[in-house]
């Protein structure tokens, strides 16, 4: 309760982006039908700027570490599979992102309300793909575990243009779909259903990537 009260105090003068119930229902209908939904201009300009600036500070501080694959007991660095660098966000200490945490709390509440899920927590990290890197086709679900219910990616690439690469490729029976990693675009998809990959980058690619979880956990590994 004290943590939540502190977050509210720190975000009193931050403009959260409010959406109507009709908009949420539109998004979730599309998610239910297609297993994913793309939402443009998700955050307010002020919150997006805070997330973007936070990313730049962490990069300048060399806080992003080489990402690996697998769970805690089987975690390995596999450059041939993925090439990104990540920084796991701690909701208790990374208070610069309090407004983002509140916005995501609201999204989780709406997911539980309208999709009848039991999401109890969420986690996310910053991800940077240097030029020439990628992430091969995969699911966001560990073998034998189903804690991750929904995945989300918020892109931070202000000047992305065709040819920069780093698109999110979603594999579908009716044909693969490539989603451009444009700034303030949120992609929400079912973790255990949607196979996807990050295409090779031609320039640095920035995002905030996370998961809505069945059970509360601390920081984890992909």
UniProtKB/TrEMBL annotation:
SMART domains: P4Hc. Pfam families: 2OG-FeII_Oxy_3. InterPro entries: HIF_prolyl_hydroxylases (IPR051559), Oxoglu/Fe-dep_dioxygenase_dom (IPR005123), Pro_4_hyd_alph (IPR006620), Pro_4_hyd_alph_FE2OG_OXY (IPR044862). Residues 115-214 form the Fe2OG dioxygenase domain. GO terms for biological process: cellular response to hypoxia. GO terms for molecular function: ferrous iron binding; L-ascorbic acid binding; peptidyl-proline dioxygenase activity. Keywords: Dioxygenase, Iron, Metal-binding, Oxidoreductase, Vitamin C. Its cofactor is L-ascorbate. PANTHER family: EGL NINE HOMOLOG-RELATED, HIF PROLYL HYDROXYLASE, ISOFORM C. This is SM-20-related protein. It comes from Lishizhenia tianjinensis.
């Amino acid at each position: 309760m004290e943590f939540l009260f502190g977050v509210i105090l720190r975000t009193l003068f931050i403009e959260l982006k409010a959406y109507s119930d009709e908009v949420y229902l539109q998004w979730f209908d599309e998610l239910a039908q297609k297993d994913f939904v793309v939402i443009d201009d998700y955050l307010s300009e002020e919150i997006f700027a805070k997330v973007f600036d936070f990313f730049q500070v962490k990069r300048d501080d060399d806080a992003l570490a080489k990402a690996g694959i697998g769970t805690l007991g089987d975690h390995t660095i596999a450059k041939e599979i993925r090439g990104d660098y990540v920084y796991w966000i701690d909701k208790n200490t990374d208070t610069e992102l309090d407004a983002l945490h509140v916005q995501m709390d609201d999204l989780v509440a709406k997911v539980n309300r309208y999709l009848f899920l039991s999401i109890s927590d969420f986690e996310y990290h910053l991800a940077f793909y240097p030029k020439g890197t990628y992430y091969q086709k995969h699911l966001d679900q560990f073998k034998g575990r189903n804690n991750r219910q929904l995945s989300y990616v918020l892109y931070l690439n202000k000047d992305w243009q065709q040819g920069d690469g780093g698109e999110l490729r979603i594999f579908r029976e009716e044909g693969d779909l490539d989603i451009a990693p444009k700034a303030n675009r949120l992609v929400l998809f079912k973790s255990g259903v949607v196979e996807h990959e990050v295409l090779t980058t031609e320039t640095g690619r920035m995002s905030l990537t996370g998961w809505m979880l069945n059970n509360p956990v601390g920081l984890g590994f992909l």
